[in-house]
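Ops channel
N.P.: pipeline sanity check, posting one input/output pair.
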């Protein structure tokens, strides 16, 4: 855990925020929900250490998921970002490592839990993330190995660099709907409804 946190602070502490584009072509590293054949693809670039992302997750995601993802009207793709500094980046880096270790079938259960307990994670990162790990069946030893895995940290770094460099996304949350990027930041369900409708959904 200490290694992961130290590496996170070193690698990502200076990440900047700016407007950007965003790609919709799926990669093997993407985490997704819903119907891959849906007419509309919504890509969210987010960080589990981003307070605005957590607010969106709390206030908009449940209704968005019920309306679009669970009904297979939208293919939802989540892409990992690390922006900000200090605790936000450290929690995000270790949180994403944990979510990946949990496996694709438990990935969103982990990210949801981290968003929910984000404030606690800023105060007590190890204890909070360990609780999340145990909630999905991971042992403390497994948690320690997962969050100090330098190879996994480098893979995360590579994904973030790709999203920043190639997709031109450096601010969270950023939503891309059928290739069209919304203004980075929080969007209400009504705003997303309008963008999905404009995209043919």
């Amino acid at each position: 855990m200490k290694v992961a946190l130290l590496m996170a602070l070193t690698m990502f502490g200076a990440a900047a925020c700016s407007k950007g584009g965003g790609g919709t072509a799926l990669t093997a590293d993407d985490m997704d929900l819903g119907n891959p054949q849906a007419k509309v693809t919504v890509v969210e670039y987010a960080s589990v250490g981003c307070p605005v992302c957590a607010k969106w997750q709390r206030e908009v995601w449940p209704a968005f998921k019920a309306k679009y993802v669970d009904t297979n009207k939208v293919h939802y793709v989540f892409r990992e970002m690390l922006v900000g500094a200090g605790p936000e980046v450290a929690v995000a880096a270790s949180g994403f490592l944990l979510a990946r270790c949990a496996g694709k079938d438990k990935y969103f259960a982990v990210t949801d839990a981290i968003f929910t307990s984000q404030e606690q994670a800023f105060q007590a990162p190890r204890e909070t993330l360990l609780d999340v790990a145990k909630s999905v069946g991971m042992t403390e030893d497994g948690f320690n190995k997962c969050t100090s895995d330098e190879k996994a940290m480098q893979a995360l770094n590579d994904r973030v660099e790709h999203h920043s460099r190639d997709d031109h996304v450096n601010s969270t949350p950023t939503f891309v709907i059928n290739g069209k990027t919304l203004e980075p930041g929080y969007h209400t369900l009504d705003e997303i409804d309008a963008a999905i409708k404009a995209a043919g959904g």
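N.P.: looks fine end to end. The first strand starts at residue 31 and ends at 34.
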